[in-house]
Design a protein that fits this description.
- This protein is an alpha/beta fold.
- It has three domains: 129 residues, Fumarate Reductase Iron-sulfur Protein, Chain B, domain 2 (Orthogonal Bundle); 163 residues, 3-Layer(bba) Sandwich (FAD/NAD(P)-binding domain); 157 residues, 3-Layer(bba) Sandwich (FAD/NAD(P)-binding domain), CATH 3.50.50.60.
- Helices cover 32% and strands 16% of the residues.
- The chain is built from 18 helices and 16 strands.
- The strands form four sheets. Strands 3-2-1-4-16 form a five-stranded parallel sheet.
- 47% of the residues are buried.
């Protein structure tokens, strides 16, 4: 007997679906948004969401699911949108993703699900991220309760770090019936989601709502706990009675350029700059005292071409920086930032100075930055990253007048947990060694995942590691096998 054929709620004939254009995301006008930190993307209406969902080809083998790091069942949740069952669609996403309102905003879908959508072979891919955001926001407004957890197992899991890896693991583990306690070093839950991503891209209220949902699920959160200093991994096991620990501390140690003048006042790491804006409320000046030097009318540049670099310079622009530069040593083609973020930055008046590399920060004579000495670059053969290697052009030095420079060229591992946990192996760069499938470390009962294992990556890749760790922790707690 052949299996029953799936019944589609989509009234549009298959060959007609590719004729429906991708539905654009409503946006706040550029001339308005450069003066505020309100979210740029305004979200789909019901009408836009359904029209976009109608474009889905309902593939027999959906590659969008295959290439989603957390395995969201895209085809299934999109069918539910077509049928008008938005809460059902949200519940379907939550089977695999406990933070849909966040990933719907900041996941680089073009590199994952949307990049492998079959529509993309001929027309624009399905707006999977926009649809995910729509149903997550609908669910939040509806006040839908979370799904019930499995029966309590009596097992306790400690999660170190409340960024995307830690939160993803916490959500999966609580649903499996384990007691979950998340420790966060800072005063607000969310890790890089709250200190590293600006309000105009990911509102703090959205993060808090997702955390509140996890609290309702039973996850316990504790802030201002620096594991490795306040409490050690050994103490979590021996004195607090935890059965497993998942280390998800991220890679928050700034990397600098190691050029003359980096010590000058006015030179920031991107981590410090964004933390001052996001967690110390610089974006709410003058309601809060501004915890960063005044930027209005000042020349500001960010060095780097990733999403963090664009987050920093777009924040500076909103705080009054003019002009606001991106100094990037390769061409725009090699820039790792999302295309949408580059487009938004250009609309907001950010000046992209590509093939430009600072070699020295210059002093005004009183310890403050006055300019960056830069050289022009040209591209040579590809390096280990697959991008063409930038090569300085002799005799091309020039100065860019600056009051503030933000270094956004990467981060490295904070050694605190590793240095205080006997038997925990690290690699030569200081990241924790962990199995790529189970996230097991060299220390029994200790798992690790996200940026503290891989180095700086994306929110969704960290969440994928959190899901793999949760699955392995569950198996470990059930069997005791290591």
């Amino acid at each position: 007997m052949s299996p029953a054929k799936e019944v589609s709620a989509n009234p549009v004939p298959m060959k007609e679906r590719m004729k429906i254009p991708r539905q654009g995301m409503p946006e706040q006008a550029a001339e308005l948004r450069v003066m505020n930190f309100t979210e740029v993307n305004m979200g789909y209406s019901m009408e836009l969401a359904r029209q976009e969902a109608l474009r889905c080809l309902e593939c027999a083998k959906p590659t969008c699911v295959t290439y989603c790091p957390v395995g969201v069942k895209v085809k299934d949740f999109v069918k539910l949108i077509v049928a008008g069952d938005y809460l059902g669609a949200a519940a379907k996403i939550r089977e695999d993703n406990v933070l849909p309102a966040i990933t719907g905003r900041v996941c680089p879908q073009e590199d994952h699900c949307e990049g492998f959508c079959l529509l993309h072979k001929k027309v624009d891919s399905l707006g999977i991220g926009y649809l995910e955001r729509f149903v997550a926001d609908y669910e939040q407004k509806a006040g839908a309760p979370p799904a019930a957890n499995a029966a309590p197992t009596g097992k306790k899991v400690a999660i170190v770090g409340s960024g995307p890896a830690g939160l993803s693991a916490a959500g999966d583990l609580i649903q499996r019936g384990h007691q979950v306690h998340v420790f966060e070093a800072l005063h607000e839950i969310g890790g890089v989601l709250v200190y590293g991503i600006p309000e105009f891209r990911l509102p703090k209220q959205v993060i808090r709502e997702q955390i509140d949902t996890m609290r309702k699920m039973g996850v316990e959160f504790e802030t201002n706990v620096v594991v490795g200093k306040t409490v050690s991994i050994d103490e979590l096991f021996e004195e607090e009675g935890y059965d497993a620990v998942f280390v998800a501390t991220g890679a928050g140690l700034p990397v600098f350029l190691n050029i003359p003048g980096e010590h000058l006042n006015g030179v920031y790491s991107a981590n410090e700059f964004l933390t001052r804006i996001n967690l110390m409320h610089a974006y709410e000046f003058p309601r809060y005292d501004e915890p960063i030097m005044g930027l209005r009318g000042k020349h500001v540049a960010v060095i780097g071409g990733g999403n963090t670099a664009l987050d920093a310079i777009r924040s500076a622009r909103r705080l009054g920086a003019e002009p606001a530069y991106v100094l990037y040593r390769r061409s725009e083609t090699e820039m790792p930032a999302r295309a949408e973020e580059v487009k938004h930055a250009k609309q907001e008046g950010i000046d992209f100075q590509v093939l430009t590399n600072p070699v020295e920060f210059l002093d005004d004579g009183q310890g403050w930055l006055r300019a960056a000495r830069c050289v022009r670059m040209e591209l040579g053969e590809p390096d280990a990253s697959g991008r063409r290697r930038p090569i300085p052009i002799a005799g091309s030095e020039f100065e860019v007048p600056l009051s503030v420079a933000v270094i956004a060229t990467g981060t490295s591992a904070n050694p605190l947990v590793q240095s205080t946990t006997p038997g925990l192996k690290t690699n030569k760069r200081g990241y924790i060694e962990a199995d790529g499938e189970s996230q097991r470390t060299s220390r029994k009962g200790v798992f690790a995942g996200g940026d503290i294992v891989t180095g700086s990556a994306t929110v969704i890749l960290a969440m994928g590691a959190g899901r793999r760790a949760a699955k392995a922790i569950h198996e470990y707690l059930n069997t005791g096998a290591w």
